[in-house]
Amino acid sequence: MDEKLKAIAEQAERAKLESELATLKKHLAETKKINSVLSEELNRRGATPAKTPKPKTTKTTGHCRAIISDTHGCHLDLRAWSAVLADLKRLPVREVVLLGDHAETGGFLAEHHVPMFMAEAQYSYADDLAAANQMLDELQAATPGAEYHYLEGNHEGRIEKWCMQTAIYSGDDREMLRRAIAPEFRLKLAERGIRYYRRSEFNETTKERGVLQLGNCYFVHEVSSAKNAAKIALDKFAGNVVFGHTHRADSATVRKPNVGTISAYNPGCLCAARPLWQHTRGAVNEWTHGFAIQLVQKDGSFLHINVPVVDGTSLLMPLTRTIGGATDE
Known about the structure:
The chain is of the alpha/beta class. Helices cover 36% and strands 19% of the residues. The chain has helices at residues 2-43, 78-90, 125-142, 157-165, 171-181, 183-186, 189-192, 229-237, 317-324; strands at 63-68, 93-98, 147-151, 194-197, 212-214, 217-220, 241-243, 250-256, 260-266, 290-296, 302-310, 313-314. The protein has a seven-stranded mixed β-sheet with strand order 4-3-2-1-10-11-12. The chain has a five-stranded mixed β-sheet with strand order 5-6-7-9-8, with helices on one face. Strand 1 (63-68), helix 2 (78-90) and strand 2 form a beta-alpha-beta unit. The chain is elongated and about 95 Å long.
Protein backbone atom coordinates (compact mmCIF):
# COMPACT_ATOMS: atom_id res chain seq x y z
CA MET A 1 0.00 0.00 0.00
CA ASP A 2 2.88 2.33 0.90
CA GLU A 3 4.54 1.61 -2.43
CA LYS A 4 1.31 2.47 -4.24
CA LEU A 5 0.99 5.79 -2.39
CA LYS A 6 4.63 6.53 -3.09
CA ALA A 7 4.10 5.83 -6.80
CA ILE A 8 1.06 8.15 -6.85
CA ALA A 9 3.06 10.88 -5.09
CA GLU A 10 5.92 10.52 -7.55
CA GLN A 11 3.51 10.66 -10.48
CA ALA A 12 1.91 13.82 -9.07
CA GLU A 13 5.32 15.42 -8.55
CA ARG A 14 6.36 14.48 -12.10
CA ALA A 15 3.15 16.00 -13.47
CA LYS A 16 3.79 19.19 -11.48
CA LEU A 17 7.36 19.44 -12.79
CA GLU A 18 6.24 18.83 -16.35
CA SER A 19 3.59 21.55 -15.99
CA GLU A 20 6.15 24.00 -14.60
CA LEU A 21 8.58 23.10 -17.39
CA ALA A 22 5.88 23.69 -20.00
CA THR A 23 5.10 27.10 -18.44
CA LEU A 24 8.78 28.06 -18.44
CA LYS A 25 9.13 27.02 -22.08
CA LYS A 26 6.08 29.13 -22.94
CA HIS A 27 7.50 32.18 -21.12
CA LEU A 28 10.87 31.65 -22.81
CA ALA A 29 9.24 31.51 -26.23
CA GLU A 30 7.28 34.70 -25.48
CA THR A 31 10.42 36.48 -24.26
CA LYS A 32 12.34 35.44 -27.39
CA LYS A 33 9.49 36.74 -29.52
CA ILE A 34 9.46 40.08 -27.67
CA ASN A 35 13.24 40.35 -27.97
CA SER A 36 13.06 39.63 -31.68
CA VAL A 37 10.45 42.36 -32.20
CA LEU A 38 12.42 44.83 -30.10
CA SER A 39 15.69 44.06 -31.88
CA GLU A 40 14.00 44.61 -35.23
CA GLU A 41 12.53 47.89 -33.99
CA LEU A 42 15.86 49.10 -32.61
CA ASN A 43 17.64 48.28 -35.86
CA ARG A 44 15.04 49.94 -38.03
CA ARG A 45 16.48 52.97 -39.75
CA GLY A 46 14.16 55.93 -40.10
CA ALA A 47 14.75 59.36 -41.53
CA THR A 48 17.14 61.26 -39.29
CA PRO A 49 16.08 64.86 -38.68
CA ALA A 50 18.57 67.56 -39.51
CA LYS A 51 20.60 68.73 -36.53
CA THR A 52 20.44 72.49 -36.22
CA PRO A 53 23.74 74.37 -36.26
CA LYS A 54 25.17 75.99 -33.17
CA PRO A 55 24.15 79.61 -32.67
CA LYS A 56 26.46 82.13 -34.23
CA THR A 57 25.92 84.63 -31.44
CA THR A 58 27.08 84.15 -27.88
CA LYS A 59 25.21 84.57 -24.61
CA THR A 60 27.72 87.01 -23.15
CA THR A 61 25.52 90.00 -23.99
CA GLY A 62 22.20 88.37 -23.15
CA HIS A 63 19.77 86.32 -25.16
CA CYS A 64 16.12 85.37 -25.65
CA ARG A 65 14.81 82.11 -24.18
CA ALA A 66 11.48 80.55 -25.25
CA ILE A 67 9.56 78.22 -22.93
CA ILE A 68 6.88 75.80 -24.16
CA SER A 69 4.85 73.30 -22.18
CA ASP A 70 2.20 70.59 -22.56
CA THR A 71 1.62 70.28 -26.31
CA HIS A 72 0.50 66.63 -25.95
CA GLY A 73 1.20 65.14 -29.39
CA CYS A 74 -2.01 64.52 -31.31
CA HIS A 75 -3.83 66.91 -28.99
CA LEU A 76 -1.80 69.95 -30.08
CA ASP A 77 -4.08 72.93 -30.76
CA LEU A 78 -3.02 73.87 -34.29
CA ARG A 79 -4.35 77.45 -34.17
CA ALA A 80 -2.52 78.21 -30.95
CA TRP A 81 0.64 76.51 -32.24
CA SER A 82 0.58 78.54 -35.47
CA ALA A 83 0.42 81.74 -33.42
CA VAL A 84 3.39 80.65 -31.29
CA LEU A 85 5.46 79.75 -34.35
CA ALA A 86 4.73 83.16 -35.88
CA ASP A 87 6.06 84.83 -32.73
CA LEU A 88 9.14 82.63 -32.49
CA LYS A 89 10.10 83.34 -36.10
CA ARG A 90 10.17 87.06 -35.30
CA LEU A 91 12.12 86.73 -32.04
CA PRO A 92 15.91 86.23 -31.74
CA VAL A 93 15.49 82.96 -29.82
CA ARG A 94 18.78 81.39 -28.76
CA GLU A 95 17.50 78.92 -26.18
CA VAL A 96 14.33 76.79 -25.98
CA VAL A 97 13.09 74.96 -22.89
CA LEU A 98 10.42 72.30 -23.42
CA LEU A 99 8.76 71.68 -20.06
CA GLY A 100 7.41 68.21 -20.90
CA ASP A 101 4.26 66.35 -21.96
CA HIS A 102 4.97 66.92 -25.65
CA ALA A 103 3.78 63.39 -26.40
CA GLU A 104 0.40 62.25 -25.10
CA THR A 105 1.49 58.58 -25.00
CA GLY A 106 -2.15 57.57 -25.00
CA GLY A 107 -3.62 54.53 -26.68
CA PHE A 108 -2.52 51.31 -25.00
CA LEU A 109 -0.53 53.28 -22.42
CA ALA A 110 -3.40 55.43 -21.12
CA GLU A 111 -3.80 53.95 -17.68
CA HIS A 112 -4.56 57.29 -16.05
CA HIS A 113 -8.19 57.22 -17.14
CA VAL A 114 -10.67 54.82 -18.67
CA PRO A 115 -11.81 56.07 -22.10
CA MET A 116 -15.46 57.04 -21.99
CA PHE A 117 -16.03 58.13 -25.61
CA MET A 118 -15.43 56.37 -28.94
CA ALA A 119 -13.61 59.45 -30.27
CA GLU A 120 -10.90 58.97 -27.64
CA ALA A 121 -9.80 55.76 -29.38
CA GLN A 122 -9.40 57.22 -32.86
CA TYR A 123 -5.62 57.65 -32.83
CA SER A 124 -2.67 55.38 -32.17
CA TYR A 125 0.59 55.86 -30.30
CA ALA A 126 2.30 55.94 -33.71
CA ASP A 127 0.02 58.83 -34.74
CA ASP A 128 0.89 60.60 -31.50
CA LEU A 129 4.63 60.25 -32.11
CA ALA A 130 4.23 61.48 -35.69
CA ALA A 131 2.43 64.60 -34.43
CA ALA A 132 5.12 65.26 -31.80
CA ASN A 133 7.87 64.82 -34.40
CA GLN A 134 6.16 67.30 -36.70
CA MET A 135 5.85 69.79 -33.85
CA LEU A 136 9.59 69.51 -33.17
CA ASP A 137 10.38 69.87 -36.89
CA GLU A 138 8.37 73.09 -37.03
CA LEU A 139 9.85 74.39 -33.78
CA GLN A 140 13.44 73.84 -34.90
CA ALA A 141 12.71 75.42 -38.27
CA ALA A 142 11.31 78.49 -36.49
CA THR A 143 14.27 78.78 -34.07
CA PRO A 144 17.33 77.80 -36.13
CA GLY A 145 20.58 77.62 -34.21
CA ALA A 146 18.94 77.63 -30.79
CA GLU A 147 20.00 75.41 -27.89
CA TYR A 148 17.23 73.00 -26.84
CA HIS A 149 16.35 71.46 -23.47
CA TYR A 150 13.54 68.89 -23.09
CA LEU A 151 12.28 67.96 -19.61
CA GLU A 152 10.53 64.61 -19.29
CA GLY A 153 6.91 65.08 -18.25
CA ASN A 154 4.60 62.64 -16.52
CA HIS A 155 3.16 61.58 -19.91
CA GLU A 156 6.58 60.70 -21.36
CA GLY A 157 7.28 59.00 -18.03
CA ARG A 158 4.35 56.62 -18.62
CA ILE A 159 6.56 54.61 -20.97
CA GLU A 160 9.10 53.70 -18.30
CA LYS A 161 6.28 52.90 -15.86
CA TRP A 162 4.67 50.62 -18.46
CA CYS A 163 8.01 48.91 -19.13
CA MET A 164 8.42 48.22 -15.42
CA GLN A 165 4.90 46.81 -15.20
CA THR A 166 5.42 44.53 -18.21
CA ALA A 167 6.29 40.96 -17.22
CA ILE A 168 9.86 40.84 -18.55
CA TYR A 169 12.31 39.21 -16.15
CA SER A 170 15.51 41.04 -17.05
CA GLY A 171 16.10 44.70 -16.31
CA ASP A 172 18.19 44.85 -19.49
CA ASP A 173 15.18 43.69 -21.49
CA ARG A 174 13.05 46.39 -19.87
CA GLU A 175 15.62 48.99 -20.86
CA MET A 176 15.67 47.61 -24.41
CA LEU A 177 11.88 47.92 -24.49
CA ARG A 178 12.09 51.53 -23.26
CA ARG A 179 14.65 52.40 -25.92
CA ALA A 180 12.40 50.88 -28.57
CA ILE A 181 9.25 52.87 -27.79
CA ALA A 182 9.99 55.82 -25.48
CA PRO A 183 9.56 59.36 -26.86
CA GLU A 184 13.18 60.16 -25.98
CA PHE A 185 14.23 57.80 -28.77
CA ARG A 186 11.20 57.80 -31.09
CA LEU A 187 11.42 61.61 -31.33
CA LYS A 188 15.13 61.27 -32.21
CA LEU A 189 16.11 63.89 -29.65
CA ALA A 190 19.82 63.05 -29.68
CA GLU A 191 19.90 63.29 -33.47
CA ARG A 192 18.10 66.63 -33.27
CA GLY A 193 20.66 67.99 -30.80
CA ILE A 194 18.02 68.27 -28.06
CA ARG A 195 19.18 67.53 -24.50
CA TYR A 196 16.72 65.31 -22.59
CA TYR A 197 16.32 65.38 -18.80
CA ARG A 198 14.69 62.29 -17.27
CA ARG A 199 12.52 62.63 -14.17
CA SER A 200 14.47 59.86 -12.44
CA GLU A 201 17.95 61.25 -13.03
CA PHE A 202 20.19 64.01 -11.75
CA ASN A 203 21.99 66.35 -14.14
CA GLU A 204 24.97 68.64 -13.72
CA THR A 205 22.86 71.80 -13.32
CA THR A 206 21.17 71.06 -9.98
CA LYS A 207 21.00 68.59 -7.10
CA GLU A 208 17.36 67.66 -7.72
CA ARG A 209 16.14 64.87 -10.00
CA GLY A 210 14.38 65.98 -13.17
CA VAL A 211 15.09 69.68 -12.51
CA LEU A 212 17.02 71.95 -14.88
CA GLN A 213 18.73 75.12 -13.71
CA LEU A 214 19.73 77.77 -16.23
CA GLY A 215 21.23 80.90 -14.73
CA ASN A 216 18.99 82.17 -11.94
CA CYS A 217 15.97 80.04 -12.86
CA TYR A 218 14.83 76.47 -12.22
CA PHE A 219 12.70 74.54 -14.70
CA VAL A 220 10.59 71.50 -13.83
CA HIS A 221 7.58 69.82 -15.38
CA GLU A 222 5.45 69.17 -12.31
CA VAL A 223 5.24 70.81 -8.91
CA SER A 224 1.58 70.69 -7.94
CA SER A 225 -1.89 70.52 -9.50
CA ALA A 226 -3.43 72.88 -6.96
CA LYS A 227 -4.97 76.20 -7.92
CA ASN A 228 -2.16 78.01 -6.11
CA ALA A 229 0.56 75.91 -7.75
CA ALA A 230 2.84 78.91 -8.35
CA LYS A 231 2.86 79.79 -4.63
CA ILE A 232 3.57 76.14 -3.79
CA ALA A 233 6.46 76.15 -6.27
CA LEU A 234 7.98 79.19 -4.56
CA ASP A 235 7.74 77.52 -1.16
CA LYS A 236 9.41 74.35 -2.48
CA PHE A 237 12.23 75.92 -4.50
CA ALA A 238 12.87 79.19 -2.64
CA GLY A 239 14.04 80.49 -6.01
CA ASN A 240 12.81 81.49 -9.44
CA VAL A 241 11.07 78.55 -11.11
CA VAL A 242 9.06 77.84 -14.26
CA PHE A 243 6.83 74.78 -14.37
CA GLY A 244 4.07 73.17 -16.46
CA HIS A 245 1.58 70.35 -15.90
CA THR A 246 -1.47 72.33 -14.71
CA HIS A 247 -2.32 73.61 -18.23
CA ARG A 248 -3.19 77.08 -16.95
CA ALA A 249 -1.15 80.28 -16.83
CA ASP A 250 -0.05 81.14 -13.31
CA SER A 251 2.45 83.34 -11.52
CA ALA A 252 3.43 84.41 -8.03
CA THR A 253 6.09 86.71 -6.61
CA VAL A 254 7.34 86.99 -3.04
CA ARG A 255 10.27 88.45 -1.15
CA LYS A 256 12.04 86.09 1.26
CA PRO A 257 14.69 87.06 3.82
CA ASN A 258 18.22 86.06 2.75
CA VAL A 259 16.83 85.12 -0.69
CA GLY A 260 15.32 88.29 -2.09
CA THR A 261 12.48 88.69 -4.55
CA ILE A 262 11.66 85.47 -6.39
CA SER A 263 8.94 84.45 -8.84
CA ALA A 264 7.26 81.30 -10.13
CA TYR A 265 5.55 81.02 -13.50
CA ASN A 266 3.48 78.58 -15.54
CA PRO A 267 3.04 79.64 -19.20
CA GLY A 268 -0.06 77.50 -19.78
CA CYS A 269 -0.51 74.76 -22.36
CA LEU A 270 -0.77 74.46 -26.15
CA CYS A 271 -2.94 71.34 -26.29
CA ALA A 272 -6.67 71.16 -26.96
CA ALA A 273 -8.33 73.10 -24.16
CA ARG A 274 -11.44 70.91 -24.01
CA PRO A 275 -10.39 67.26 -24.39
CA LEU A 276 -13.12 64.65 -24.19
CA TRP A 277 -11.68 62.94 -21.13
CA GLN A 278 -12.17 66.15 -19.14
CA HIS A 279 -15.93 65.68 -19.54
CA THR A 280 -15.70 62.79 -17.10
CA ARG A 281 -14.51 65.34 -14.52
CA GLY A 282 -16.92 68.13 -15.43
CA ALA A 283 -17.69 69.97 -18.66
CA VAL A 284 -15.60 73.07 -17.91
CA ASN A 285 -11.91 73.45 -17.06
CA GLU A 286 -9.67 76.47 -16.53
CA TRP A 287 -6.93 75.61 -19.01
CA THR A 288 -5.31 78.49 -20.91
CA HIS A 289 -3.13 78.59 -24.01
CA GLY A 290 0.22 80.33 -23.90
CA PHE A 291 3.99 80.16 -23.90
CA ALA A 292 6.72 82.26 -22.28
CA ILE A 293 9.82 84.19 -23.21
CA GLN A 294 12.68 85.28 -21.00
CA LEU A 295 15.07 88.09 -21.82
CA VAL A 296 18.19 86.78 -20.11
CA GLN A 297 21.14 88.96 -19.10
CA LYS A 298 24.73 87.74 -19.01
CA ASP A 299 24.63 87.46 -15.20
CA GLY A 300 21.66 85.07 -15.38
CA SER A 301 19.01 87.58 -14.33
CA PHE A 302 15.99 87.75 -16.60
CA LEU A 303 12.69 89.35 -17.46
CA HIS A 304 9.97 86.68 -17.73
CA ILE A 305 6.89 87.27 -19.89
CA ASN A 306 3.96 84.86 -19.98
CA VAL A 307 2.42 85.26 -23.43
CA PRO A 308 -1.31 84.44 -23.60
CA VAL A 309 -2.68 82.91 -26.81
CA VAL A 310 -6.41 83.62 -26.99
CA ASP A 311 -8.61 81.95 -29.62
CA GLY A 312 -5.58 81.26 -31.80
CA THR A 313 -4.13 84.78 -31.50
CA SER A 314 -0.96 85.62 -29.62
CA LEU A 315 -1.19 88.78 -27.54
CA LEU A 316 2.52 89.30 -28.18
CA MET A 317 2.01 89.41 -31.95
CA PRO A 318 1.84 93.23 -32.31
CA LEU A 319 5.09 93.56 -30.35
CA THR A 320 6.93 90.86 -32.32
CA ARG A 321 5.90 92.56 -35.56
CA THR A 322 7.64 95.66 -34.28
CA ILE A 323 10.71 93.79 -33.02
CA GLY A 324 11.08 91.83 -36.21
CA GLY A 325 10.36 94.79 -38.44
CA ALA A 326 7.67 92.78 -40.23
CA THR A 327 4.37 94.10 -41.48
CA ASP A 328 1.29 92.25 -42.64
CA GLU A 329 0.09 92.99 -46.12
